[in-house]
Amino acid sequence: MAATLLIRPRLTDYHGVHAAQADLDFAIPFLDEDIPLYLDPFMLWRSPSQQDQALHTGLINAFNHLGVLVEQGKEAQAIETLIIASECDEVGLGTSLTRKGKRIGADKAREIIDLFKAIPRYRKSGFRHFEEIQFFIEGISKDRISDIGCNFLKSFLIDFTIEQCQKLGVPTQDCAVEHVYDARLGMFRREVGVPLPVNPENGSPIIFVPKRWLRFAPWISYDDYFEKHCPQDEISHKPEELTRVKVLSYNRQNYGVIDHYIQSKERTADDCANDPLFSQIPVTSAKRVFAEIKKLPTGKINGADARLQTH
Description:
By secondary structure, the protein is mainly α. It folds into two domains: 2-271, no CATH class; 282-311, no CATH class. 45% of the residues lie in helices and 8% in strands. It is built from 15 helices and four strands. A hairpin with a 4-residue loop joins strand 2 (173-182) and strand 3 (187-196). Helix 3 (50-71) packs antiparallel against helix 4 (75-85) and helix 4 packs across helix 5. Mean pLDDT is 90; it is low at 1-5.
């Protein structure tokens, strides 16, 4: 009953786990909406931890296996695998107000898969950072990058979640988790039974993500490239005609520009850090808001309930 009184409840609040976000290794998930942060694969690449580096290698190998499937004449399987990887509801990262997202369609997946055929570097050696797909394909941004990373790393994230739950005493129950990637098979297993925390409202499994991997935007991003590295004058001398479609088309024909950008981001990797999950507000602001809340009447009188949620 107490849980129904919570405003924007977090999993730890629901289970009475009194631990500050700063003291935990994972981002505390909300029960009814996403956390507006994203897994950045570059955080694994630049990490001093051998475990993180090995996970990044496994992530890239999993993505590049799509190119191997294309070479083997199994393009349909590559497309199906990528579609599955494109959404990961269990982690609750992004901007959804329902913790539910939508996978990409077959046409978009085919566009991505075609990069293994269209760009010689990817055809020969694969991707160093699969985040590069956002420089060639319309509609691919930080949410897709994050979800693809989470799905290919889901097996590790499940183990990480179980460990954290045991450490904190968060209850778990047996769940059927869909689409866990098996590196030995090079494909997603349809369903795996594991003990995980669940959403008390609908019983859906919840998976934690290490907060050291989270950023508001990936280190390798289209916006950063467009602002600081894109040769805009070469694409169009008229700023009003410099559309994203034209930039993406230029990139496909001039991969060297993207390669130089990636190298520059690798050289400055020491500047890349995870973003804080919550920003501390000044004490005076906190006191003012708290005083306003104390003055609110109980119930729904004069919209008090709505005003409480805005705080």
